[in-house]
Structures are given as structure tokens and as C-alpha cells.
Amino acid sequence: MAVVFLGYAVGKAAFAAQSRLGFPGGPPVSAAEADAYFLDPAVAQWSAAATGVLGASLALATVTPLGRRVSRAVMLPALAGMLLAVGGGAVIMILDGFVGLGVGWRWYHGVLGLVVIGLLLATIRSYETATRRRVAG
Length: 137
Hints:
By secondary structure, the protein is mainly alpha-helical. It contains six helices and no strands.
């Protein structure tokens, strides 16, 4: 997951440097769509790049000793929020890639969406299993 998030961050940073909306390898963003945003494209993309770095950091925290010392009451809701946000985008990629919603994602983007959801669920399960308290009995 950390590699996926860092790839996302790098792609967003590349577009931020060009003041463009979208994601490299994804569907094009028309000039009309870009004009509909009230936020400068560069600012929006840099913000998205920051969320990619944050996601990578969170994913790494689930597998490091220091990160596993973070309270489950903090980490599990953070991971659930990440699942909702990332999963929502992945579901759109899947549906548009295989069914066609009109966004412009292709079938291989749909496959990537399935992989991302699977990796994210595995990350959450791994963290939950590794930090589960064993009840003596």
C-alpha cells in the first residue's frame, strides 16, 4: 500500500508542477471541468500529493514496531477512513473500467482498483491481527 500511495503522490506532484488536474495514465480532464474548480489546480494537486504521502505513512505505520504501538482506537478509525476514501475512488475506477460510467477509466484501471481494495483490506487485516490482544484462558 505504501508503494501505491507514493505512486499516487508522485503522479499528483507531477501534475501539480504543471498546474494540471487529473492523474498521469488516467482519463483526461477537460478545460471546462478544470474551470469548474474554485481551487487552483496546482494547489489541489499538491494537496492530493500530501494525502498520498500521509497514506503511505499510515500504511508503513501498520507494519513497523513504532506504528504498531499507536493505539488501536486511533489507528483502526484512521484505516477505516482510508478504506472509505480510497475504496470509493477504486469502486468508481472498477465500475467505469468494466461497466462504463462515462468518466474515462479503462478496464486495466478497473483491475488496478480491485488490486488496491485487496491490498488495503490486507493491510487493515494485518494490523488488526498483529495488534489483537490475546486473552489468556
